[in-house]
Amino acid sequence: KTSFKIAVLPGDGIGPEVVNESTKILNAIGEVFNYTFEFTYGLMGAEAIFKTGNPLPEETLQICKEADAVLFGAIGDPSFDHNPDAKVRPEQGLLKLRKELGLFANIRPLKTYSSLIDKSPLKKEIIEGADIQIFRELVSGIYFGEKFTDEEAGYAYDICKYYRDEIAPIVHMAFQEAQKRRKKLTLIDKANVLDTSRLWRKVCKEIAQEYPDVELDFMFVDNAAMQLILNPKQFDVIVTENMFGDIISDEASVIGGSIGLLPSASIGNENALFEPIHGSYPQAKGKGIANPVASVLSTAMMLDYLGLGQAAEKLRQSVEYAIENKYVTMDLNAEQHYSTGEVGSFIADYI
Amino acid sequence: KTSFKIAVLPGDGIGPEVVNESTKILNAIGEVFNYTFEFTYGLMGAEAIFKTGNPLPEETLQICKEADAVLFGAIGDPSFDHNPDAKVRPEQGLLKLRKELGLFANIRPLKTYSSLIDKSPLKKEIIEGADIQIFRELVSGIYFGEKFTDEEAGYAYDICKYYRDEIAPIVHMAFQEAQKRRKKLTLIDKANVLDTSRLWRKVCKEIAQEYPDVELDFMFVDNAAMQLILNPKQFDVIVTENMFGDIISDEASVIGGSIGLLPSASIGNENALFEPIHGSYPQAKGKGIANPVASVLSTAMMLDYLGLGQAAEKLRQSVEYAIENKYVTMDLNAEQHYSTGEVGSFIADYI
Ligand SMILES: CC(C)[C@H](C(=O)O)[C@@H](O)C(=O)O
Ligand SMILES: CC(C)[C@H](C(=O)O)[C@@H](O)C(=O)O
């Protein structure tokens, strides 16, 4: 297969700017490697609410379902964040898209770049060499559980529920990844308090039998929040439920000092979506200062997913070349910096 | 009032050792300031399970209810952590004690010590001068909600529920503390997804009317996990629900570089409990290497609570004197260090 349908959802804030560099670069890759990428654009997030009233219009969902992969920018808008009463919110679009496409595993690699190590808030000796892969369950748990508010009686609740079948697939994925790496898997949970966490522990222990070469250990989420800062090098692959994954993977994303560089993949049985870890960053919108690298590296994860490993490798090399040669945006080098478009074009040209 | 009944629950691991220094020091304070502290000891945690089968024996609960304040060490034992099927667990004792005593607010001050700033995993310029006070709701939310496991059907759930009445008291407390400090209060929640978080936001906004001199802002928990590392100085007082508080306050506890120094208070309408933030640290048990300072500073919080502000101040000064003069345990100075008991006696003598 040499021709691919890509659904492109630029979304809100700096989303459109960074995604634009990714499509630019995909075109360059197409030329060099003789692939065709056909882009179909869809509305999503606050942008979609403003234009259609719906954060995930039916048409967008269709485009995604028919595509080989989805390239996604970011969502979120301050006008919704400051209004707890808003019934329609950009986040609902993303949550619904994940659910509809069955994207049960959110994968975030955390690597450090030696030329950027001094950007980390952590001391060099603590962070240098850390290399973690986080698997976050993405379509179940408390974010998708039943929710209810009774204004009169003055209470609200959210239910966190997990079935074995919702736990097992991502645990298998994480074990398989650990086998390719340093063979250590850590489950993060709160099994000393929560029933769902105890179920996660059980399922992990059972599945561990099938991967005798991988060492499985367990860590309470409160302790994990500390250990990530104290000694991030102790981790290889992490697997965890939805909400813990949200918190822990965001915490992990800043310790390397370069959240603007971190990609993510959300994988299901039939679909996959690729997005930078950074959010919509509305303050930077339209200024040409957003760092496109996270989106570009998400594109590299997409190429891997599409079976285009060689192109993915080439793309990663190009990004590293740009970074090592300080062809970077303002966030990485205040003295001499380039615009979003310049960095994207530099990478595209190098390919 | 010059005579006080103190319930002492040493608990597990290094708990007994550090609490022992606290009572030693309270005796010294009693002599100097002419107070009487009457100690009544109770079993709690794994220790209590081994001896009575119950992590919180009825007798212990009674002792606590009759006391003016509770001094607590730590609980937790590896034999339970590694057994997800254990029906009786040390943590249940602590959770039940919090609930029974109505300790709805867990308060953790985070301060940095200039002589210890190089112990922080964060770079000096990021952490130096950070001064945060965290208010964690402690007796509701998902840790206390209905839990259920259906082995047959292969699922489990945990319910996070909040009533307005469970939110308002701690929010008032946090606003009042902010008034005495830099007048900034941050609510940490996940209001873009959870109903309970939206209820927290509403209640906070309403109560804010009564504290017009305090600036209230909101932060999503995933972002907060990042901001604590990127820029801890932006926080003054933080208020949050039980589980987010568990994670965020533990994360905050390590950024100063000295979790062995951090105290906490758990306050209710009629009772209060004081405990170090560090856990039972079973590996260090009985070795005389545990740092007693967190327990001692918890004791200072207890003195404040009992209305003995002058004694509390004197105790804090003594601790600072010990630290500045490097009269510390191994964790703070590997080259020259003193035992748990030596550090405790040094502080007691200084008083
Ligand atoms: C926007 C929000 C619903 C989302 C989440 O929490 O899942 C985001 O924080 C993320 O991590 O992708
Ligand atoms: C032991 C456990 C139940 C407890 C909690 O999570 O509340 C502990 O982690 C704490 O923070 O005091």
TrEMBL record, chains A, B:
InterPro entries, A to Z: IsoCit/isopropylmalate_DH_CS (IPR019818), IsoPropMal-DH-like_dom (IPR024084), Isopropylmalate_DH (IPR004429)
Sequence positions that bind substrate: 98, 108, 136, 222
UniProt-listed Pfam families: Iso_dh
Domain of life, source organism: Bacteria
E.C. no: 1.1.1.85
Note describing how the cofactor binds: Binds 1 Mg(2+) or Mn(2+) ion per subunit.
Compartments (UniProt record): Cytoplasm
Reactions that this protein is recorded to catalyse: (2R,3S)-3-isopropylmalate + NAD(+) = 4-methyl-2-oxopentanoate + CO2 + NADH
Required cofactor names: Mn(2+); Mg(2+)
Binding-site residues for Mg(2+), renumbered to this chain: 222, 246, 250
Annotated site residue numbers, Important for catalysis: 143, 190
Broad class of where this protein is predominantly found: cytoplasm
Record bears the keyword Cytoplasm: yes
Isopropylmalate dehydrogenase-like domain ranges (all copies): 5-347
Functional description taken from the UniProt entry: Catalyzes the oxidation of 3-carboxy-2-hydroxy-4-methylpentanoate (3-isopropylmalate) to 3-carboxy-4-methyl-2-oxopentanoate. The product decarboxylates to 4-methyl-2 oxopentanoate.
Subunit text: Homodimer.
Similarity field: Belongs to the isocitrate and isopropylmalate dehydrogenases family. LeuB type 1 subfamily.
Protein name in the entry: 3-isopropylmalate dehydrogenase
UniProt organism field: Chryseobacterium nepalense
Gene that encodes the chain: leuB
